[in-house]
Amino acid sequence: MRLADLFRIALGNLLRQKLQAVLTVMGVLVGTAAIVLMVSLGVGLQKQTIELFNEVDFLTTVRVLPQKRSKSLMTFGRPLGPATRKLDDTVIAEIRALPGVLTAYPAVNVFTRLTIERTVEGKKKPLIGGSVEYVGLPQAGIVPLYRNALVAGGFWDGETPAERCIVVPADLLAEMNLAPPLPGKEAPGETPAGRGDPRWNAVLGMEVRFQTEVTVATGKEPAEGEEEAPDPPAASDEDDGEMEKTVTKKVIRRFRIVGIYDSTDIGMPWAPAVFVPLEQGLELARMRTARQNWVEGGYQAIVVKARDASQTEGIRRALDAQGYGTLTVQDIVQVIGSVFDVLKAVLGAVASIGLFVAFFGIANTMLMAILERTREIGVMKALGARNAHVRRLFVVEAAAIGVLGGTAGVVTGWGLGAAFNRIARGIVAGQGGPENISLFSVTPALALAAAGFAVLVAIAAGLYPAWRAARLHPVDALRSL
Amino acid sequence: MTPPEPIVSLRDLTRRYVMGNQPIAALDGLTLDIPAGQFLGIVGRSGSGKSTLLNLLGGLDSPTGGTIRVGGMDLAGAGSDTLAQYRSRKVGFIFQQFNLVPSMTALQNVALPLVFAGVPHAERRTRALELLGRVGLAARSGHRPAELSGGEQQRVAIARALVNSPAILLADEPTGNLDSTSAAAIADLLRQAHRAGQTIILVTHDRAMAESLCSRTVELRDGRLIADSPAPGSAA
C-alpha cells in the first residue's frame, strides 16, 4: 500500500463523520491552544525580564570576585569555598592590561534609598526617595555611555575631588517632585524637561545624605569627619563579658549633586545607579561591609569594563582561567532563564491537562469508528489489506486529528496571545510604561513543539483502537452488521 | 496425458470450532480437487459447512486439520500476512451484501484491491475503468454505492472481484439480495467470466441456480461431501 493512498483513505475516513471529527479536533485545538497560551506567557515574561539586562552597560561588564561563585539556580552567587585571591591594586593593574579591557576598578555596591536634604527656613530637611545603588567610579570608569546620558551638570574632575560629589538619576528627582519629568514620561499637563533645560539647575548643588551605622570598639575615636548622630548610641554588644566592648554609631556623609543623568538604559530599573568618585564610594562600602569576610586588604570585587560586548566573554574566560570568580550578565540571564524554564514547564504541564482530556476524546472517536466500520474492515481484509494496512489507516486517521487540532490550536493560541498583548499594551502605555511589551510570545520552536505534542498525543490515542481494528478476525468482521 | 494440476486441492480439510464447551466440526475431512476454469457450485443447507469452506478457500480463516492448496500456495498454517497477500493476488470475493465501501465511488471501490497490492494510481484507474466497462457501469464510475441500485452495486462488486485477475472467484449467494431481473444480469456476468476462463466457486443454498449456472455441483452436509455431479473426471 502506497503512502499517498494511506493518507488519502485515512483522511477520507476521518471526514465521513464530519461533526464527530470536528468535535474531536476541537478537543485537541483547545488543549493545544491552552499549552501555546500558557507557555507563551512564560516565554514572554522571560523575554521581558531578560530584556532588562540587554543593555550595553551590563553586557560590557565582568564582575571579578576573590573566589568562584555558584551559578546554579538555588545558590546563585554564593561563594564556593573561602576567598583565595586577594583583589588589590596590583590585580586591577594586571586586569587592565588584558586584551579587550577598557578599564577595571574596585566595585562599590551599596544599596540604600536616595535621601536629599533641602534647606527649608534655615533647617535641613531630608526627603527620602526611591532605592539606588551607590556606584564608585574612577575617571576611567566614566564611560562615554554615562557622559551621553547626562541631562544636566557633569561628572567630577580628578580621581579625588576636594568635596563629595554625586550624579543622580533624573527619574528619581521627578518622583520626588524636585525636577520636571524627562520627555516621554510626563503626566498629562506636565511639561517635560530635555537635556540642558534650566529647570534642572535648581537641583544641582543640593545635597544627598548617606547614613549608615558602624560598629566601633569603645575608646577608639571615630574617624575624621564622622558625625555623631543626634540620637544616643544604640545597644552595644553584650553577649560576652570577655569580648571587647563595641558601640554602634550612626555615620552621615553628604554629597553635593553635580550631575543629573537619564537612567533609562543604565543599571537596574528598580535600583538605578548614583555615581560617586571611587574613593568616596569605597569608604561607604567599607562602612557597610566591615563585618564581611574578605581577603584582608583586598577589595570585595572588581568591575571590569570591556571595550565592547563581544569581548566580555573572552575577558571572563581569561579571568576564570586565572582562578578568579567571575559573574557576568550572561550568568544572571542564564539563571533567570532556568527559573523561567521551570515556570514554562509548570505552565505547560498544567495546560497539558487539556490534551490529556483530548486523548480520551480521540480514543473514543476511533473506537466508535471501528464499531461503525467493522464490516468495512472485514471487506478491506478480504480485498487483501494486511493487518499493518488496517493499523496504519487508523493511526494516520488519529494523527490527522492531531495535525488538524494541533495546527488550529497553535493558531488559536497565538491569536489569543496577540489579542491579550494588544490589551496589555493599551493598559501599560496608558500608565506611562514601555510600549510594545509582549506578555505572550509564541516562538517557532514553541509552535512546532505544541503542534508536535498534539500529534503525538493523537497518535498515542489511536494506537490501541488501531491495534484492535487490525486484529479483528476477517470472518467475524464480515459477519457484523 | 496427465491431467493438469487442479487449481484448488483440498485433502482431509477440517475446521473445528468450540462453541461453549461443545466442539463442532464445521468441516470434517473434506477432500476435493477443483480444476482450473471450472464453475463449481457448492450447495447445502445452513450449517452444512459451505460458508466455512468458502472462508477457508478465501484465506479468511485457517483450517484446524488437513491441507488446502490454491494456485500453488499452501494455506494451512499460513500467517496473517501470507493470507493477506494470498487474498490480494489469488482471490476475488463477491458477497451477498455487496459490501462496497460506502464512502468511495464505484471506481474507487473497484480499484481498492489494487491499492492494497501497491499498484500505482494511473494503472489502477485504467484497470478499474476497464472492469467497470465490462460490467456495463463505465458511466457510473463516479457514483457512490448509495446512488446505485442493488444490481448495480453487485456489478461493481464483480468488477472489484475481478480487478486483480484472481486465480479463483468466490461468490457467496451473489443474487440472494436481488430481484429476479438483477439476479439474471449477475448470473450472466458470472457466465461471461467463466467463458473467459475464470475459475468460479459459487456458494448457494439454491440448488436450481447452481445446476443452471455451474459445470459441477457438490453438496455438503454436516461438513462432509455427500454429492458430486457430474462425477470428477467426466466432461466439465
Please give a handful of descriptors for the protein shown.
heterodimer, A: 481 residues, alpha+beta, 2 domains, seven-stranded mixed beta sheet, four-stranded antiparallel beta sheet, B: 236 residues, alpha/beta, Rossmann fold, six-stranded mixed beta sheet, 28% strand
Q: What is the domain tally of chain A?
A: 2
Oligomer: heterodimer
Task: Name the helicity range of chain B.
Answer: 25-40%
- Overall 3D geometry of chain B? globular
**Structural class assignment of chain A:** alpha+beta
The run of helices and strands of chain A is: HHHEHEEEHEEHEEEHEHEHHHH
CATH class of chain B: Alpha Beta
User: How many strands appear in the DSSP assignment of chain B?
Assistant: 10
Biggest interface, CB < 8 A: A-B, 26 and 29 residues
- First-residue to last-residue Cα separation of chain A: 27 Å
Biggest sheet architecture of chain B: 6 strands, mixed
Shape by Cα distribution of chain A: elongated
Number of helical runs of chain B?
7
How would you characterize the overall build of this protein?
- The complex is a heterodimer of chains A (481) and B (236).
- Chain A contains 12 helices and 11 strands.
- Chain A is α+β, with helices and mostly antiparallel strands and 481 residues long.
- The relative contact order of chain A is 0.20.
- Chain A folds into 2 domains: 3-52 and 336-479, no CATH class; 56-329, no CATH class.
- Chain A is 46% helix and 18% strand.
- In chain A, strands 3, 4, 5, 6, 7, 8 and 9 form a 7-stranded mixed sheet that branches. Chain A has a 4-stranded antiparallel sheet with strand order 2-10-1-11.
- Chain B has a single domain (37-61, 80-229), classed as P-loop containing nucleotide triphosphate hydrolases (Rossmann fold, 3-Layer(aba) Sandwich).
- Chain B is 34% helix and 28% strand.
- Chain B has helices at residues 50-57, 80-90, 106-116, 121-134, 150-162, 180-195, 207-213; strands at 8-19, 22-34, 39-43, 65-70, 73-74, 91-94, 168-172, 199-204, 216-221, 224-229.
- In chain B, strand 9 and strand 10 form a beta hairpin.
- The radius of gyration of chain B is 18 Å and the shape is globular.
